[in-house]
Amino acid sequence: MNDATLDFIRLHADDDVRQLALRAPRDGSVDVPFALNQIAGRQTARKKLPSWAAVEGILFPPHLNMEQCSSEQTARYKAKVVGSGGKMADLTGGFGVDCSFISRGFNECFYVEQSPSLCELARHNLPLLGLAQATVVNTTAEGFLHTCPQLDFVFIDPARRDAHGARTYSLADCTPDVLRLMPLLVLKARRIMMKLSPMLDWRKAVADVERAAQGQAFVCGVHIVSVANECKELLLDVRCNSNDGEKHPLRVVCANLVSADETVVFETFDSPSPITHHPSSITHHLSPLYLYEPNASIMKAGCFGALVAVYDVQAIAPNSHLFVSAHFIGNFPGRKFRVNHLATMNKRDLRETLAGITHANISVRNFPLTADQLRKRLRLKDGGTDYIFATTDAERRHILLICSGC
């Protein structure tokens, strides 16, 4: 990397990369592909990895690696969950984001990655980030485990794409295959954190991991992590070599990272706690009535019985995943609304209830129409300040709740 290339990167740090590619010098003085990749990477990092973007000299990988790496928000969350210790290893180092934040709590860290180019980036970047305790190891996860010392903690984020780039969701189809590695993992580590696709059935993932561990490890925690109410990560917290013979309750943590400074957490212990109480008919509701939609992490966890037990709310119906109360609950972990009107799908009822409404934000839960189909039937445009929730109540009637935000 010559001085002309570095000057070009600094000069055009804020430029549109596509436009810049058309007018970049072609005389060989500037390594144009490298420069464009660095400019695009730093622009992405300003939002995704702000503390990295602020460090002079950090080098960025190709776009796909930037797209797949953790955000700073989720990496900081994982570091907080993991805490501190002696020796750790990140067996799927990638761009090194998770490794860089988690390793700050450890005395010694092994960054393990089978891609030579990503290892080169890590050797360059980790010292700039003040991580002198990190050792870069260019090998496979399995190869490292066969020769590594005993570890206090291991982090693993298996790739969820096959050789053709198609997404995979089964644990056994990921690379590396964590189920096949479990006997070796539990032999070398006291604790493991697995970062998995949020598309997975987390209960099945827990069962698969514990089965593969053959009684030598158990999952003590499941963290379902969302950013701005979009589910991003499923984390399994695994404890190894537990011989106390006790049945350990499974801790389920639903974390919604609202901003860099705000995290909304709902925590429970997994148990088959179905929703047993719901209004027989909310058409005879008290006034006022408030509606609650749980955040994405809670929706994924499916712990609705625990939600009813913790908050003074009732489910509209067992499968609606919408909740109501006669008084406002400001700390409910999700979106909150005041119900202004309630309508059935009767044409006259709809005409009277929707009079004067031209725009609405429509959501459907346990309802026979999609949001787009319902919008067309109601002849409403998208947007505005009104919110319509279409669902099926406990008496199996299709109803609309017309709400305003709280």
**What number is the mean pLDDT?**
90
Total of DSSP H or I helical runs spanning 4+ residues: 15
What proportion strand? Answer: 25-35%
The general outline is globular
The separation of the N and C termini measures 54 Å
Rg estimate, integer Å: 25 Å
Given as residue ranges, the uncertain stretches (5+ residues, pLDDT < 50) are none
What structural class results from the helix and strand content? alpha/beta
**Sheet with most strands: strand arrangement:** 3-2-1-4-5-7-6-8-9
Biggest sheet descriptor: 9 strands, mixed
Fraction of helical residues: 25-40%
**How many β-strand runs?**
16
Summed up:
The chain has a 9-stranded mixed β-sheet with strand order 3-2-1-4-5-7-6-8-9. Strands 11-12-10-13-16-15-14 form a 7-stranded mixed β-sheet. It is α/β, with parallel strands linked by helices and 406 residues long. The chain has 15 helices and 16 strands.
